[in-house]
Amino acid sequence: MTYCVGLLLNEGMVLLADTRTNAGLDNISTYRKMFTFEAPGDRVVAIMTAGSLSVTQTTIARLTEAIETQDESRSIMHAPSMLGVAEIVGTTLGEVTHEVRGKMQRQDSVSASMLVAGQRRDGGMRLFLIYSQGNFIEATAETPYLQIGEHKYGKPILDRVITPETSLADAEKAVLLSMDSTLRSNLSVGMPLDLVVIGNDALEITRARRIEAEDPSFQQMSQAWSEALRRAFQEIDAA
Fold first, then answer.
1. Of 219, 149, 188, whose CA–CA distance to 29 is shortest?
2. Cα angle at 169 between 164 and 174, to 5 degrees?
3. Phi, psi of 146 (to 5 degrees)
4. The domain that contains 227 carries what CATH number?
5. Given this model, what pLDDT does residue 229 score?
6. Predicted local confidence at residue 27, as pLDDT
7. What pLDDT, on a 0 to 100 scale, did the predictor assign at position 217?
């Protein structure tokens, strides 16, 4: 499994994905779940994936091939808007899911989802959650973040602290703590992590970071968060 989260804020977008894929306790692997595409000054697109690895890898491969062959009808780098990007990704994901399910006996076991984030020149920043069937929903001011994968452990902190006015610095801290909570509670999510920040109207990636398991700043943040929670727990009186 995996955990990916994207925030849509006034200042920009903050995206975080883990890299663990497992097919049982004795078969744990690391695969990138964050893919970025840039034409600086024109558009920037980031895609995060969760679910069936065969579906997500094939989908990303087809999207990449469409870019390389300059297939204007299927290339996310030729879409006139971020809505068009979401539609292309949704169509491709839906087609691949249908094909893979047709080759497997247990069709219900094939499931995948994607987060698509970015901005097109002369357009606003947008964040979409694409489902296996190809349909999608979009982040809004009322719900300025979207998650895929093992999202339940990292959701509470986002609900409590994230608003469209949240700064990029605080948003980065929030997604890292959201991931830390998930790492502690679910072994199917694991390091390293991929973090991407896209500033509003930057039309390119503002900051990208690979966070390894031994990263000292992440370890320090995790420890500080644990200690803060313990102190808060001790200070609250029982009802």
1. 188
2. 70
3. -135, 150
4. 3.60.20.10
5. 94
6. 55
7. 96
Note if the bond before 192 is cis, omega within 30 degrees: yes
> How high is the pLDDT of residue 114?
98
Instruction: Look at residue 198 and give its three-state secondary structure.
Output: strand
Pairwise CA distance, residues 190 & 183, whole Å: 6
Q: Looking at the 3D structure of the chain, how many domains does it have?
A: 1
Listed as ranges, residues in the chain with pLDDT below 70 are 22-28, 105-109
Could you tell me the residue range of the domain that residue 75 belongs to? 3-235
Q: Give, in order, the Cα–Cα distances in Å from 194 to each of 111, 189, 190.
A: 22, 13, 11
Distance CA 104, CA 123 (A): 41
DSSP codes of every residue in 94-156? HHHHHHHHHT-S-GGG--EEEEEEEEETTS--EEEEE-TTS-EEE--SSS-EEEEES-TTTHH
- In the numeric block, which tokens belong to residue 94? 């839906």
Measured between alpha carbons, how far is residue 172 from residues 57, 96, 181, 201 in Å?
Answer: 27, 33, 14, 18
Position of tokens 């020149």?
121
Rounded-to-integer distance, Cα 41 and Cα 160, Å: 34
Scored b (16 or more CB within 10 A) or e, 106-135 reads: eeeebebbbbbbbbbeeeebbbbbbbbebe
* Distance separating alpha carbons of residues 91 and 89, to the nearest angstrom: 6
